[in-house]
Amino acid sequence: MIFFFDGDKAGNEAVTKYAEILRELHPKVKISQVETPKDEDINSLIQGHENEILIHLIDQRKELPFLFLLKTTR
Known about the structure:
Layout: E1 2-3, H1 9-25, E2 32-33, H2 42-48, H3 52-59, E3 62-63, H4 66-69
Parallel strand pairs: 1-2
Antiparallel strand pairs: 2-3
């Protein structure tokens, strides 16, 4: 699973939220995040750069570590 959200606070919060949900549903799935430049989105990247920027960013994505996504329950 690859998340490619906006490069803002809401985009980062969405990755955390949905990654946790996916981990609960599918604990073995690999989840990664494209690090969208700050205050950019897919549309602004396409308009301001060559289309290859998307491929480059996807190739540079970071896998989200499993421990980062675990919630502690008591």
